[in-house]
Amino acid sequence: MELKILYFARLREALAVREEQVEVAASVSTIADLRAWLSARGGVWAHEFAPERQLRVAMQQQVVDADTCLVAGAELAFFPPVTGG
Amino acid sequence: MELKILYFARLREALAVREEQVEVAASVSTIADLRAWLSARGGVWAHEFAPERQLRVAMQQQVVDADTCLVAGAELAFFPPVTGG
Amino acid sequence: MIVVKVQTDDFDLSAEIAQLRHSNGAVGAVVSFVGVVRDLNDGAAVSAMSLEHYPGMTEQSITTIVEQAQARWSIFDALVIHRVGDLLPLDQIVLVAVTSAHRGEAFQACEFIMDYLKTQAPFWKKEQTPTGARWVDARVTDDSAASRWTQACVENNSTIDD
Amino acid sequence: MIVVKVQTDDFDLSAEIAQLRHSNGAVGAVVSFVGVVRDLNDGAAVSAMSLEHYPGMTEQSITTIVEQAQARWSIFDALVIHRVGDLLPLDQIVLVAVTSAHRGEAFQACEFIMDYLKTQAPFWKKEQTPTGARWVDARVTDDSAASRWTQACVENNSTIDD
């Protein structure tokens, strides 16, 4: 399954990636799976996607939970808790 | 006891009086007494100060209750419920 | 700082709020309320309005309520401008602006001050409608005004030296 | 009417509120919130700030929350302007303005929209302080974020055709 992933704010800076296209195996079916998959890259990825790190995730520009199923071709976004307003 | 009395808004128009100095007997000791005293003038006064008419009263520019004691020389004001803001 | 103005002139919201913002670098939130003359009230078209007030008592009573708001919430400054005299539909009537570090306090204080202005501050509106001029009725729900006139005398705290 | 703008430029409060007032003669109340850059945050002097957002999601998510406010309260129009890019202390960050016939509805809707903006809308602040730049921490109270990552898969309603 192909996915587009965006990173914002502190996460974008820490990973030094703004946007990427990824291809994940069928076993990666939920948001939680994707997070684990990214964490498995090791190094800064393991650090930033560690379970205790507070991250928000959006799919198709809507905030989703860890148990949400991934949709092929979707735009995902990972970001820290928001601080606007 | 001498008192200054102001009237505002609908009441001022109905009575055709904006302000007056009055001299009341010692038996007129509370706000309620003063209201009854004004009502006893009859005519439009009896109408406007009838017990069922909603009126607010201020003494020395502070809203007071019917049972508040009059203070000699004070500035009283009668007015309808307020409609500012 | 508390500023209370009763004036016939209109006010400029940007300028007033900019002054509040610039007076204190700790201001993070400005909540403001602007009251506006509606072109329809209680089912009648309104072509003009005039506002009367009780000079002296107005300023003093608003200042007192703003002090209460400052004692109750962590707010910095408050500005109240209330216009009197002749106004037209869509005109601004009143501005209440409150500054604070965080928004919750300013929202609550601003609404508190407005509630007071609406129910206690000595202002009265008279509207021009197709059937003539009329004093606006207060939105009073079952006011027990009549019964309040039948009680015993209680010594009042205020004196004429206040 | 709902207007949502994300922009680098400053905004003029008087002009924006005047437009809201003049769009509808039934408007009696305008409640507005202005967020301001503070010169001190979490104990550190702030010399500058930059704001990042998620283009597309920002506008869409704010519009959705304003629609929720319109469904919940009797309000007319709502205007949200959120600045992004570089800002200085005392600068305006955000404006939320809501119009209604009577004040209570506008106060509640305005605060509701601000609460959403603060906790859900995808904006992030980075501050310049004497010890360097830092991303502002969200005011999260005991967020159970970690535990949310350990649940079973549930079919999501949204599709990529949304």
Structure, described:
The complex is a heterotetramer, with two copies of chain A (85 residues) and two copies of chain C (162 residues). Chain A has three helices and five strands; from the N terminus they run E-H-E-H-H-E-E-E. Chain A has helices at 9-15, 31-39, 43-48, and strands at 2-7, 19-23, 56-59, 62-64, 75-79. Chain A has a five-stranded mixed sheet with strand order 2-1-5-3-4. The termini of chain A are far apart. In chain A, 38% of the residues are buried. Chain C has a single domain, classed as Alpha-Beta Complex (Aldehyde Oxidoreductase, domain 3). In chain C, helix 2 packs antiparallel against helix 3. The two termini of chain C are 23 Å apart. Residues 141-162 of chain C have low confidence and may be disordered. Chains in contact: A-D, B-C, C-D. The interface between A and D is large, with 38 and 44 residues. Strand 2 of chain C pairs antiparallel with strand 2 of chain D, so a sheet runs across the interface.
